[in-house]
Design a protein that fits this description.
It is built from 6 helices and no strands. It is mainly alpha-helical and 122 residues long. The protein is 70% helix and 0% strand.
Length: 122
């Protein structure tokens, strides 16, 4: 029974992953030019999508958690680790022009520059 439950969770994750990538692609945030425009503060498509995701999550958790339909577990963190992780993430995003989610979506979309680590010269 436990193995069947794990397999179900894997399939659930796969479906959600495909849906996430599809929505990233439809939103346009798998495009290098859109992401760079966000970093240059000339196009705020990415911010709008992130805010929509945050609001949707807030509403979903606010509705589902009190009814016992989901479990929410907090984890302890540290400022030091958050700063280090943010710096690594920001440097990678700035150098490659893609974040981890959008680079996977861009590769799935067929953008060869994403597969080459975001290098536009290939």
């Amino acid at each position: 029974m436990i193995e069947k439950k794990k397999a179900g969770r894997l399939i659930e994750g796969l479906i959600i992953g495909f849906l996430f990538g599809f929505l990233l692609q439809k939103g346009g945030v798998s495009k290098y030019d859109i992401l760079i425009s966000q970093l240059l503060l000339t196009d705020f498509t990415v911010v709008k999508i992130i805010l929509a995701a945050i609001i949707t999550t807030m509403l979903g958790v606010s509705f589902l958690y009190p009814r016992g339909l989901i479990e929410v577990e907090g984890k302890s963190g540290s400022i030091k680790n958050a700063v280090i992780g943010g710096l690594i993430f920001g440097a990678g995003f700035g150098i490659l022009g893609y974040c981890p989610g959008t680079i996977a979506s861009a590769i799935g979309n067929g953008y060869i520059d994403a597969a080459a680590g975001g290098c536009r010269e290939f």
